Amino acid sequence: MKKALKRGLYAVLLALLPFATGMAFGKTWVRILDFALLYVMLALGLNIVVGFAGLLDLGYVAFFAVGAYCYALLASPHFGLHLPFWLILPIGAFAAGIFGMLLGAPTLRLRGDYLAIVTLGFGEIIRIFLNNLDTPYNITGGPQGIDMIDPIRLGSFSLNQPTSHTVYSYYFLFLFFALATAFVSMRLQHSRIGRAWAAIREDEIAAEAMGINTRNVKLLAFAMGASFGGLSGGLFAGFEGFVSPESFTLMESIMILSMVVLGGMGHIRGVIFGAVLLSILPEALRYVGPIEQSLFGKIVVDPSSLRMLLFGLALILVMLLRPAGLWPSPARKRELLAHGETAKHENTNIYDAGR
Amino acid sequence: MDTFLQQLINGIVLGSIYSLVALGYTLVYGIMGLINFAHGDIVMVGAMVTLTVTRLLANSGLPGPLILGIGVLTAIPACMAVGYLVERIAYRPLRNAPRLAPLITAIGVSILLQNLAMMLWGREYLSFPQILPAQTMAVGGASISTIQLVIVASSCIMMAGLSWLIRKTRLGNAMRATAQNPEVATLMGVNVNTIISITFVLGSALAATAGMMVSAYYGIAHYDMGFILGLKAFTAAVLGGIGNIEGAMLGGLLLGVIESMGAGYLGTLTGGIMGSNYQDVFAFFVLILVLVFRPSGLLGERVGERP
Amino acid sequence: MAAILLASCAKQKPGSEFVVKIGSVAPLTGPQSHLGKDNDNGVRLAAEEINASGLVIGGKKTRIEVLSEDDQADPRTATIVAQKLVDEGVNGVVGHFNSGTSIPASRIYSDAGIPQISPSATATTYTGQGFETTFRVVTNDRQQGEALAKFAVGTLHARTIAIIDDRTAYGQGIADEFEKDAKAEGAALVAHEFTSDHATDFTAILTSIKGKNPDLIFYGGMDAQAGPMMKQMRNLGMKMAFLGADGSKSPEFIKLAGASAEGAYASAPGLPLDKMPGGKAFVERFTAKYGKIQLYSPYSFDATMALVNAMKQAGSTDPSRYLPALSKIKMDGVTGPISFDSKGDIMHGAVTLYQVRNGSWIALP
Hints:
Strand content of chain A: under 5%
Shape of chain A: globular
Radius of gyration of chain A: 21 Å
Number of helices of chain B: 11
Helix content of chain A: over 70%
Strand order of the largest sheet of chain A: 1-2
Strand content of chain B: under 5%
Structural class of chain B: mainly alpha
Number of strands of chain B: 4
Number of domains of chain A: 1
Shape of chain B: globular
Number of helices of chain A: 15
Distance between the termini of chain B: 56 Å
Oligomer: heterotrimer
């Protein structure tokens, strides 16, 4: 009973959040919340690969791109197709999953840093193809991207309202999907597969000896993680109405990885927290200019350069003070706080296969 | 003119630059198993310092190579200091932390260095004074310039020197011991902290040299020049087998030649469907192929499961 | 956080002056930030001059306040910034810098009914979306590509042409238009090579072009690549003509290419500054305050002036009231006469060609 009450309270809070934000800070911050929810989905997807299965992926944004371009191609004047979103989103997620397997298959034997560079290369390859597939046949629109993408429609209701309630309607759609991915993540973690991932992460050889088919289980991690990214990409395309390769750079992959690590790898709440924090922080730092103005009466240091400077500094400081992330899972915390040999053993073994 | 030979020369020069930067990656990785993402930005600092000194002296009437020498001799200690500080502040406290934690601080350091450089040197692309004579000579129908020769030669010399340092000196012994097992090395009387600091400082000195060469050769320096260069160099280091000095050299040269040949001949090979726009795809594709068949790089040792 | 935000919202200068807010958006961090800052400076100079001379709109004494934002040349950030400016109640926007950021942002400005003038986005799709609030004061890729092709084939008599583009929305857009028009003018395309907007080494693609020995190389991309490219071209002993578009026509290009820059051609939208009434004075004032003009600050200056003039004519700073005046505006800017066609593109956009002579860009007659 008490649990139900608590859940109800959370639901009310999440439902009121955009309106409170909108009233207090303006629609900009509702839009930032919308993007934060997209990043929650992305971070949760990457968390399956990095946090659960312990495979370092530096090209995750490729799956985001696949989902986004699926939506853009199937619902825009580019090919003249205008499929409904409930059909495209699964297609995008499925396509991204296939790409995840494509990436996973040749890299199964690789570990640690080798895997990192191959995934990084894969991410770049996808981006370069998207950027160049306008010749000989114009498939992706090349560097110009694809514009005039259909907004997401529920029945006859378009979420894109000229009265600029757009950011609110998308908030609830994204919230639904973010909660769904969090729910799926949670169920996955405690399922048979989730335990198999944990086993591989901790000790792959022992896992294999226990009868786990490491190949299939790893491929599944890549595919599952990728499909979350694809889903998020589809939503992004519908929300923005425009996609171009500029949105899917390596820096974006690094950002998503930072969210996972900073929040607390493998811990769903921590990852969600990391995603929200890192999508809000750079925007909040936009206000350093006005603060400088009110403190010193003039702009001392150019705020735009100070913004990224502070962001870099924040990444360093957080990691120095909380190396396991801001909100690590209780089990992980126990391991970190353990004494002497145990701690050392745990720290050198977790998430560092191949070292 | 022999196009093929010219492309080969282009590739080797580009590859030598990659090699030089890759050496820094591989050195640090070999000793402590850390991808120092900020290495490319230390190269940038090296380029910026050299450029500043060179600009100051450009009209002093001193001969060009001497000015460049003074420039790089200023850049080396500057980069060493930056490298030392970065290791001390951002990596050392995390030595026993989970593996990915230093990766994030490295990204943080990279962002920090770039933005500091932007505040110091501005947003503009800086041009390098033309102080070296642009002499070219003909080799079998292709042309090669003096500065290209200097780049290739110094890259070889540095690799040889580094290789000697690691194999033949006491310091090298200590470094190799630390790489294999820090605890045992400590028992043997090696001060692991000092060795790691030295590794970083050494890597940064190489970065400073690389920075000087890149900016003098291309005549350009910019605060975010380090990122892409670092990425390519990291790819080269992995291609050759990360942690292996000769591997970094080989990987760099190979990557340079692959890129050149890819840009030059991909169009002809695919009948015009893919051109130089797929140059990077080609490079990454070769990397993936190599790693699939030789998971530890071309010259990397096949290491078994280590605790 | 709340305190910070409130502080920024409550920031209102005392006095009875009426304040009109103009948003200025460009990448202020990242590789293009030197050009972004240049745009921003153009807006700021316009605002300062208008404020200094005293602005009266609809009988009320009015002061311009510039809100500068950094969109990092990233489409997603661009929409956040656009929303931020809408929230802060800007009366008009000068920006964004890139086509890739101007397009997604234009939807938000259009929804809010706020006029947007880009001083530098040249992709044809930007004004092709059918938004009433979308304008630009530069010629688009189609207009410029045509002028470039006419010059290359007609004036320079290039029979064989090689094209290089940097695979950005800008570079590819202008290169494709140039290619189409150059072929129509009767030139043969012998090679189309590609690079990226991060590249510094072009020897490989230049070497393969050298083997085909074209009369002219056209580069679609920015100055930071064009400069070193020109230098490497000459070092490889390639003596053919080099032609760039507006992205290459900057003092940076000459600095980066050094002595090799001599003889390079490039185009720029509008008329030469010294031919325009007030153009020379603009250069002097801008240089005194912010240093050398990079590329588009004259255009962002004009864009700001266009917004303010439309407000003056309509006697209102309300976007819905002055928007009709803006679409019908006729004025002389420092870059040329400014008026818009039905799509929001600049009408009769002139394109001028320049050549590097004795270390500076000289307008060709």
